[in-house]
């Protein structure tokens, strides 16, 4: 309650709270500056977003713990050490007490100290457990770079050590040109026997990482990868059909899911709706149609905005019925939001609709 009150007070002035927090942190602990990117603009709102997410789930222990464990494991690649947590906590509380002055008192401070201690302990423990079984990051060499449209590239890399993951998951990726700036990308294939990983990258305006990957990366370049994450994976304990919506480069994890179903030798119906702005933007349609030819249980339906005058989720309504299907959505945040609404409307229960967190996608920015 006290935590929620504080978050409600600082929500509208989040920018100030975060700037002051980082100023405190770097003045009091200059040795921590090198863990953060040179340009802090994209970093700024990440911390507060993470805190808001934690505060939002404070009553749902299971979701909160899973989220924090993932966050703790993900922090290993930044070089975060257990002793850094108290330093961060102190500056966080310093900043909150200044900007949430209307609600701040000794009781609120005690509640924050308790909450932050619990949060950081879950993260520290998860990182320590992960240290026993996985590297903090992987180096990966670009082995092919295929420019499919003027701004979309399919990039394949070879990790320096085995990289275990599940089809439908994503990773974080750092290029040599923008040190310590990490972006999320979904794996575009199910795990392969040669260990190679592929990503579909679209260069977006002002997207430093995406532009570097599309326009600068060449075979031989070395990137870094964080651990795999995400829960948009196939449930192999059922044989219900899969209804998949992939918008733009959002087709990447959908392709991985199709390969996963194929490898499990299952003959469950898989219906893929592949949305793009124009015919040219359907850069992976050949691959998807080839998959359709080899798998009788797979149907691929391209949806081009300009031709359909309807967006992806609206088209899905015209097919069906979908009540025997699990739904998977991947694409821009707007598509995921309206897609979830459309699918609920059609009668698919929320627990059968899977997608990556829209907050993560927005935070991914470019
Ligand atoms: N795991 C995931 O969810 C993944 C998400 N992405 C995200 O997908 C996006 C891909 O960008 P682009 O290729 O430029 O896609 P885009 O902006 O060209 O959109 C692709 C298609 O999605 C549909 N769409 C877009 N906005 C919509 C809205 N508000 N409501 C309904 N339908 C909508 C339309 O059919 C559109 O043609 C990026 O934001 C990227 O971060 C990419 C890969 C994986």
Short description:
Residues 135-235 form the FAD-binding FR-type domain. The chain has 366 residues and is an alpha/beta fold. It has helices at residues 2-10, 14-28, 44-56, 61-74, 84-99, 106-131, 208-215, 251-263, 285-294, 305-308, 312-317, 333-346, 358-364, and strands at residues 138-149, 152-159, 170-174, 182-186, 197-202, 222-225, 241-247, 270-276, 298-304, 325-330, 353-355.
Second-tier CATH architecture of the largest domain: Orthogonal Bundle
Could you name the CATH homologous superfamily of the largest domain? Globins
> What is the N-to-C succession of helices and strands?
HHHHHHEEEEEHEEHEHEHHEHEH
**Oligomer type:** single chain
Counted up, domains total: 3
Largest sheet: 6 strands, antiparallel
Structural class: alpha/beta
Helix content: 40-55%
pLDDT averaged over residues: 92
- Write out the distinct hetero groups bound to the structure: 1,4-dihydronicotinamide adenine dinucleotide
| Strand residues, percent | 15-25%
Based on Cα principal axes, name the global outline: globular
Low-confidence stretches: none
Assign the CATH class of the largest domain: Mainly Alpha
Provide an overview of this structure.
The structure is a single chain. The protein is of the alpha/beta class and 366 residues long. The protein folds into three domains: 130 residues, Globin-like; 88 residues, Translation factors (Elongation Factor Tu (Ef-tu), domain 3, Beta Barrel); 124 residues, Rossmann fold, CATH 3.40.50. Helices cover 42% and strands 19% of the residues. It is built from 13 helices and eleven strands. The chain has a six-stranded antiparallel sheet. Helix 2 packs across helix 5 and helix 4 crosses helix 6. The protein is globular. Bound molecules: 1,4-dihydronicotinamide adenine dinucleotide. This is nitric oxide dioxygenase. It comes from Streptomyces albiflavescens. One of its GO terms (molecular function) is oxygen carrier activity. It catalyses: 2 nitric oxide + NADPH + 2 O2 = 2 nitrate + NADP(+) + H(+); 2 nitric oxide + NADH + 2 O2 = 2 nitrate + NAD(+) + H(+).
